[in-house]
Predict the 3D structure of the following.
Amino acid sequence: MEDKKATNPRRRDHEKKWLLLLVLLGLIGMITYCFKSNEVFPAASIDLQLGQNKIQAIAKKWAILAGYNKENTKISTIFDYDNESKTFLEYELGSKKANALMKGDLPVWYWSTRLCQPLQMEQFLCQINPSGQLVAFVRQLPNDYVLPSISHGKAFALAKDFVETKVGLPLSKFTRIKHGTTSQIKRSDHFFTWENKEDSFAGAHLRIDVNISGNQVTTFDHYLHVPESWERKFSKLRAYNELLTDVASVFFSILNVATVFIFLWAFSGGFIRWRFAVITALFVSLVSLAETLNSLPRAIHSYSTTIAFDAFLTDYYVSSLTSAASTFLQSAVLAGAAEALYRLSFPNKVALENIFTKGSLALRQ
């Protein structure tokens, strides 16, 4: 017998109105995204002028200049940003003005390139902005690394010359606010900090840090220094966010426990449709595995040189497979429980395992 509800003209007109409303809302959302995406997602508007190979070539030049010139190094490059500065600017100035500043002279976005050798403490980390200018670098040295020591005055002259000549940042607007000397086992190190007090960004100021190890520049950092008062204020906001996260995690834990009990009930009653549960879990676990493997460059970037590189890769792949297996089990339990509960609640609806079949797609529901 033909479904009267399905052939009712008034019902059809009502459904068409809802469909048109959904289409209209979708168009409004798409237009809003096109006009506002750069403000909401500032990283999407960054002009990445240089490719990874070019960035790595620039980083290697700075490494040689800093005295790190080694063969057979592991090199990795990722795109990153100064999260604290970004959050501060967006909070204090608003997304539109903050994005304009971050796309300009403020050192927020950068490529981070690392050069290292397995089982060696000495390494080099370099940050290059999208236009190819140096943001920061650090040549990490052991405390007992031997270098000729120089006086604090000569170290200051070396640091100042490096910033103005090598990096190309004039210090005319900057004032030296900190400096000092630390004694290492076989050398003397010096540190200097300049701050631009003339230009203010909602109370934040640009700073430059330079460290001299022995007679070589081993650290350079050009960054936006966020006021400590804001850090204290933001820590309170972060505490509230963490509290909300903890509250939400309680409901999430209850849902997980309930899912397990529903699965056990369905399993004992023979209600589990294993084909649907297994296929769903397999799909989810494969996507999770692909995402994990896609993050390998970032994992290599944070690789600890205290272990062999082959051991690191083996551990990463084994961990990825273990995580995928865990995801498979969790997804199978969730899919099996949800499907059984769905059939119990809606016995006259199309089964979840048949939704994407040709016959089910042709049904009105």
